[in-house]
């Protein structure tokens, strides 16, 4: 009985050559260099190619197979014919060791300045991490750079890069590479000042003429200065006597955060499941969630009697602990581990949820929240979260265009 072919393993001590070509790009460059290297015993180990504003950088790592001088000569003639600069570096084996302990470091800002990149990459080098690849995944409305990094400790890098990010007014995320960034996820968002620009209870309070009073209480609760449940009961009491019809008025007045529709639409295309948890009220949140394709909703309910708000809530308050519990419940219903969840929020009552999720993102949050979340987004565009998940802007726009054409 014949045996299946065994995978070919390159000799880790075999001599190798790294060819790097740079210059003006044109069709046929890649074909020409690989045709030149088509010699007995020469095997391709690695290839990296990038074109920026028509300038090509192509790196090819091959085994030599006893053909070193011939391979170099043929590559040099190919480069000359293409009017490209060629550098050749000899070595041994593949570059597998630099792939150990792989991470993705994402830099997001508006703008991203050279000194910010220098500070972050300098910190990576100081901590013994190597940058294997860099690419830009968005230019508008924010600039996002994604760095493939190896050899760094994720917790150390999160802590130290957050200091550099704060000093240079950018956001930095450190995430595991590989399969951890792929596959279906559950993304759960706070509503007030995250999915929407408003605080629903303040819109309701405006109808009672008590908006400033309620806003002051909300601010203290979001900063963690007072207990959320206590603050909610105090604020809802201000709504006593309002007609139930004001809920329709508030639903019509709610403004989505810029990028919210794009975020939801793109994540749904990718097969993600969405949820919202709110310290606000399901009477307003649920219709909005249905419109955006959000499957899971948790929030507080207002008591209504004879068509009038009583100034009380029904059932247990969805507070800081309640939001984390909702995240766990949503994940269990989708048969997803917590490591496959992403939570987004801005206030102190989101902290437990952000901590429980596989990735906790503070969105335009208070300093207390930014300090404790895995990463933060400090630009007013909710779809910037896509870039932290490794989804390029160009792919989002291509999908939108394809849908529009179809």
SSE blueprint and pairings:
Layout: E1 15-24, H1 29-36, E2 44-52, E3 55-63, H2 68-81, E4 85-92, E5 102-109, H3 114-126, E6 130-138, E7 143-150, H4 154-167, E8 171-176, E9 186-190, H5 200-207, H6 211-222, H7 228-237, H8 246-253, H9 260-269, E10 273-281, H10 282-292, E11 296-305, E12 308-314, H11 320-333, E13 341-345, H12 351-356, E14 359-363, H13 367-372, E15 375-377, H14 385-388, H15 393-405
Parallel strand pairs: 9-10, 9-13, 10-11, 13-14, 14-15
Antiparallel strand pairs: 1-3, 1-4, 2-3, 5-7, 5-8, 6-7, 11-12
Helix pairs in contact: 3-4, 5-6, 5-8, 6-7, 8-10
Protein name: phosphoserine phosphatase
GO molecular function: hydrolase activity
EC number: 3.1.3.3
Describe the structure.
There is one protein chain. With 406 residues, this protein is an alpha/beta fold. Helix content is 37%, strand content 27%. It folds into three domains: 15-94, ACT domain (Alpha-Beta Plaits, 2-Layer Sandwich), CATH 3.30.70; 98-180, ACT domain (Alpha-Beta Plaits); 186-373, Rossmann fold. The mean pLDDT is 91. Helix 5 (200-207) crosses helix 8 (246-253), helix 6 (211-222) packs antiparallel against helix 7 and helix 8 (246-253) crosses helix 10. The radius of gyration is 27 Å and the shape is elongated. Its EC number is 3.1.3.3.
Q: What is the helix fraction of residues, given as a range?
A: 25-40%
**Dominant shape:** elongated
User: Going across the major beta sheet, what is the strand order?
Assistant: 12-11-10-9-13-14-15
Beta percentage is: 25-35%
Output the structural class. Answer: alpha/beta
Mean pLDDT: 91
- Give me the CATH fold name of the largest domain: Rossmann fold
CATH architecture term of the largest domain: 3-Layer(aba) Sandwich
Count of runs of 4 or more consecutive helical residues: 15
Model regions low in confidence, pLDDT < 50 over at least 5 residues: none
**What's the CATH class label of the largest domain?**
Alpha Beta
Helix and strand element order = EHEEHEEHEEHEEHHHHHEHEEHEHEHEHH
> What is the CATH superfamily of the largest domain?
HAD superfamily/HAD-like
- How many beta-strand runs? 15
Distance between the termini: 53 Å
Total discrete domains? 3
| Main sheet makeup | 7 strands, mixed
Rg from alpha-carbon coordinates: 27 Å
């Amino acid at each position: 009985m014949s045996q299946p072919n065994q995978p070919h393993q390159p000799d880790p001590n075999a001599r190798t050559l790294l060819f790097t070509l740079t210059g003006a790009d044109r069709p046929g460059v890649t074909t020409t260099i690989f045709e030149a290297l088509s010699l007995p015993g020469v095997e391709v180990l690695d290839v990296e190619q990038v074109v920026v504003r028509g300038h090509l950088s192509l790196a090819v790592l091959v085994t030599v197979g006893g053909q070193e001088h011939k391979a170099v000569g043929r590559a040099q003639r190919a480069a000359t014919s293409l009017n490209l600069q060629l550098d050749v570096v000899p070595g041994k084996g593949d570059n597998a060791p630099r792939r150990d302990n792989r991470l993705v470091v994402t830099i997001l800002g508006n703008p991203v300045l050279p000194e910010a990149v220098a500070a972050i990459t300098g910190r990576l080098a100081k901590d013994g991490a190597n940058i294997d690849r860099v690419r830009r995944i968005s230019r508008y409305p924010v600039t996002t750079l994604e760095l493939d990094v190896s050899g760094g400790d994720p917790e150390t890098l999160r802590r130290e890069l957050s200091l550099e990010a704060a000093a240079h007014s950018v956001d930095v995320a450190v995430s595991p590479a590989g399969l951890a960034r792929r596959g279906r996820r559950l993304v759960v968002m706070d509503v007030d000042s995250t999915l929407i620009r408003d605080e629903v209870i303040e819109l309701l309070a405006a109808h009672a003429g008590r908006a400033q009073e309620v806003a002051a209480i909300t601010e203290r609760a979001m900063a963690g200065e007072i207990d959320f449940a206590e603050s909610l009961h105090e604020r809802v009491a201000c709504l006593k006597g309002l007609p139930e019809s004001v809920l329709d008025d508030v639903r019509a007045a709610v403004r989505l955060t810029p990028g919210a529709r794009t975020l939801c639409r793109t994540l749904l295309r990718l097969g993600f499941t969405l949820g919202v948890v709110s310290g606000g009220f399901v009477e307003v949140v649920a219709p909005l969630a249905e419109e955006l394709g959000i499957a899971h909703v948790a929030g507080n309910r207002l008591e209504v009697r004879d068509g009038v708000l009583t100034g009380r809530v029904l059932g247990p308050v969805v507070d800081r602990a309640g939001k984390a519990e909702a995240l766990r419940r949503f994940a269990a219903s989708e048969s997803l581990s917590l490591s496959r969840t992403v939570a987004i929020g801005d206030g102190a009552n989101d902290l437990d949820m952000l901590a429980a999720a596989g990735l906790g993102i503070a969105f335009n949050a208070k300093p207390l929240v930014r300090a404790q979340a895995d990463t933060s987004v400090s630009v007013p565009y909710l779809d910037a979260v896509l870039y932290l998940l490794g989804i390029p802007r160009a792919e989002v726009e291509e999908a939108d265009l394809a849908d529009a054409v179809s």
